[in-house]
Amino acid sequence: MRYVRYTPSSPQTSFSLAFDSGINIKVRMLMMALVVLVLALVSVVSCDSQCYNTTPKNRESGVINVHLVCHTHDDVGWLKNVDEYFVGSQQNIYKAGVGYIIDSVVQNLQDNPDRKFVYVEMAFFSRWWNEASDAKREAARTLVKNKQLTFANGGWCMHDEAAAHFVGMVDQTTRGHRFLLDTFGYVPRTGWQLDPFGHSATQAYLFGHDLGFDAMVLGRSDHVDLEKRKLEKSMEMLWSPSPTFGKSKAILTQIRPDGNYQPPPCFCFDFNACACDPIQDDTSLEDYNVDQKVEEFVQQAILYNDTIRGDDIMFLMGSDFQWENANIWYKNLDKLIHYANKDPRVNVFYSSPEDYFAAKRASGVEFPTKSDDFFPYSDGWNGYWTGYFTSRPSQKRYAFLMTSYLQSARQIQYFMGSSLRESDVLDELENAVSIVLHHDAITGTAKQAVADDYAKRLYKGGEGAASLLNQGFKEIIDSKVRGRGGDDDGVIRPVEESSVNDGDVLQRAEGLDLDNDFVQCPLLNISTCAFTETSSRSKQNMQVVVYNNLAQARDDFVHLPIGKESSVAVFDGAMNPVASQITGLDPSVRPGSSEDVEDLGFAVQIPPKGLAVYYVLFQNIPQNATLAQRSKTRAVSPNEASIKISDGNIGLTFDGSSGLMRGMENQKYGIQMESSIDFLVYNSSNGQGQNSGAYIFRPEGTLPLLNRGDKLNLTVVEGPLFSEMRQTFAPWLHLSTRVYGNRDWAELMWRVGPIPFADNLGKEISMRVSSSVSSGDEFYTDSNGRDMLKRVVNYRPTWDLQVSEPVAGNYYPLTAALAIHDDKSEMAVLLDRACGGTSLNSGDLEFMVHRRILADDARGVGEALNETECGCRDCHCAGLRVAGTTGLVLASATDGPGLRRQVQARKESPLVTAFRAITSMDRVSPLSGIQGKFPDNVSVMTFHAQDAASILIRLAHMYQAMESSSHSRTAKVDLQSLLPGKQITEIHEKSLSANQDLGSITGTTVVSVDPMQIRTFVVKHKPASSSSSSSSSLAGGLAAAF
């Protein structure tokens, strides 16, 4: 449709009025008045919305086809929290109201069917939809149907790619895609990662190809890489960085030429954000600028077209929280299209990402390739965005923990009856975990008040999940004790109707103690649990349930704080004595209260996707009991030349004179080498050009923790289950290195903070493990918990690196692991949260654990990263203390990858432990949610009931190709083994986010999973027949699972 502007002199709109001379003069006057009124209405209405020709012409060769893609970038929290951004409050902080943006866009799209818009963040759009009137909803449906309103990415947020773990990334994407599918029947086709601060290999194949995306748009690339790509016309490429899949999962990818997502200079028409003049086409006014604006626009198009291949370019029209007044934008863009198309050099039109990439593919352009990722990112010689890899380490841990906690809660929810399978009791946690994956959330780059809001959301969501888990444990265990066990096979079977409903769960989440419920202690990582401490002092016996959400059986250890001088014994669910150990707390674990509490540790065995029960008795202890043995704790004398702690397999040797570790051995693999652990304190750059900050890591040098000749304070703890060496590097920095009996790795338990700043310098703390592994300048980092990628010090695969920041420029994101190896051995650290890391010297593993910075780095957040224990910033409160546990693996080069992946799985899936008071012990053998054998190289990544009769199951292969001779192989999984007590009726394979059907599986319930592959299924089921199962009870049989 063509829109023609009305002007009184235009022959197309002039009127010739011929009246018969016999017509009454009054009639003539009336007709004249009506004509004038009609002309006035045409002038007003048509010139607002239909004055300009915006109808797209056919794509033309020999001219630049300019796709105008209108968008807004709406952070799901940053300077304001997600609620404030949506409703538009706190305008003094930032002028933005996302609800008004969507209102305005939807209204103005209706005024011209040529107009288009792309939206991204479903956390906002779903909220707008929930509040919208029926009329607004119908308008949105029509716009989507007409392809005027489109969606890119379509996740709940635009997730980060450095600190985010792949399980959470998939969950938040699935949540957004589910909303779009249910609401509009819409399936996004384009990835849209405009603002993350670097881009990962996992993003390319998992969140590109496996989501069914045709293409992907990335916002940021290193400034040197960016300039090189412009010169080589390689801003668009086929990206295939997975070592396992290679080109088979390549995706067409564009990097934005400005390293961002802004409109061309002075073509921003958001008057709140930009100082650009509008297009003024009224020749009767002084500021007529059409010719100037068109020429500027065409020059920008020519400049951009010189950086890519083909004759199609995409201009992004919008930026952060823009389009609140869509009328201004569209009014000016309508004019721009109308006038620019009079210039023969360009063909300008409204477009969408899908339209753009369809044109690119149709043009026959050959694209260059890229096989590495986009880390680390720098926007200047001293501006390496590698600090955010570690910023806010406690928040990163919390997000990591709650992602796994959600998986455990989903598994238990499935077993609790059909009504709870359809309940949204876990929606609050799912929403919180999805929001926290945003690229200004888990990155630690939001303001402190917003970071507090993220933590609050995780906490509130976790309360509901904890209530469901506690009640699920109670139902499973009590139903078994009451004799409703049925088959004696140690398998958990779901009930069709549980005695618990979602109302009960919500009441318990609100803290109403309906009866003898389980409780959980979220602060066990710092040996704090009021329930266990009070129970020990009052001699109240406890039942402990331990849940394992992994698909493999697990031998592990549980640690509980108890009152000092307690006499205690531990039994398993079959009432067999369990060896246990009491150890005094390191004073740094609970400063000020460690002397009144001790640690009770005991070994546990938990079946796959299952639970085990233990009893901790403080009174009425049976005669066959083995009382907990007290460990021996002593200070190490400076005169001791060498002290060794060992579990019989892992051995660590320490130098008594210096207090430092000197050697490590793994007798199982016959590996022994020199090894040491120390900490590096980097002084943050402050006031000398580019500062360190929430985003940027720019050290000015290292500050030695120890002066020459200083000695660390050493305390050795020896016991029957574990031994440890406690080192005090500084009053605010402590390390306990622990070895457990029959475990193939060591645990590094570190406590850092409050970081001092009396010298007015920020500090960034890294742990360094040094060894004699001959790794040279090569090391390996994980990509969002999936592939391990090769890194080389001071090197980039696709351009010549000029080393301007020798430390920060070699830091890479770590989500799970950092490893080195030579021909004989592999050493790796396995993490309990995301951070940054490197290997600056052969044999070294270095990873950052905490940051406290006193300056802002001028990247937008406007605050120094100065976390305190009180949550305040500009106060006299002590700095934040952070505690963590890192696995240290040393093995042969052949067996190292397998052991590393096993430890990684444990770190990613912490045990869930709950407690309740008891007056007697009942026999409760371990129970598993898996019936039969399950492969040891596949994880059940997702086990999420969709309704009473279907479940979403994702299977993820844990190894990449050629990584392990024994594990990098195709696995066979029987889906029926995951659904005991059920009969599978249908299996539908889905795309990664479950929004596209890839076909049905018939005639078998066995599926194969290749290395690094993730397969997604929706499985429909019904209760098994009586011949298959003699009971529909919750607990299933009474037999032990071992």
From TrEMBL:
Extent of Low complexity compositional bias: 1024-1042
Renumbered residue ranges of the record's region Disordered: 1021-1042
Cofactor: Zn(2+)
Co-factor binding comment: Binds 1 zinc ion per subunit.
Reaction catalysis annotation: Hydrolysis of terminal, non-reducing alpha-D-mannose residues in alpha-D-mannosides
Leading EC class: hydrolase
Chain ranges of the Glycoside hydrolase family 38 central domain: 383-458
Matching Pfam families: Alpha-mann_mid, Glyco_hydro38C2, Glyco_hydro_38C, Glyco_hydro_38N
InterPro entries: Gal_mutarotase_sf_dom, GH38_C, Glyco_hydro/deAcase_b/a-brl, Glyco_hydro_38_C, Glyco_hydro_38_cen, Glyco_hydro_38_cen_sf, Glyco_hydro_38_N, Glyco_hydro_38_N_sf
GO molecular function annotations of the record: alpha-mannosidase activity; carbohydrate binding; metal ion binding
EC numbers, comma separated: 3.2.1.-
GO BP, one annotated term: mannose metabolic process
Keyword rRNA processing carried by entry: no
UniProt keyword terms in alphabetical order: Disulfide bond, Glycoprotein, Glycosidase, Hydrolase, Metal-binding, Zinc
Signal peptide: none
PANTHER family in UniProt: ALPHA-MANNOSIDASE, LYSOSOMAL ALPHA-MANNOSIDASE
Family indicated by similarity: Belongs to the glycosyl hydrolase 38 family.
Protein known as: Alpha-mannosidase
Species, as recorded: Chloropicon primus
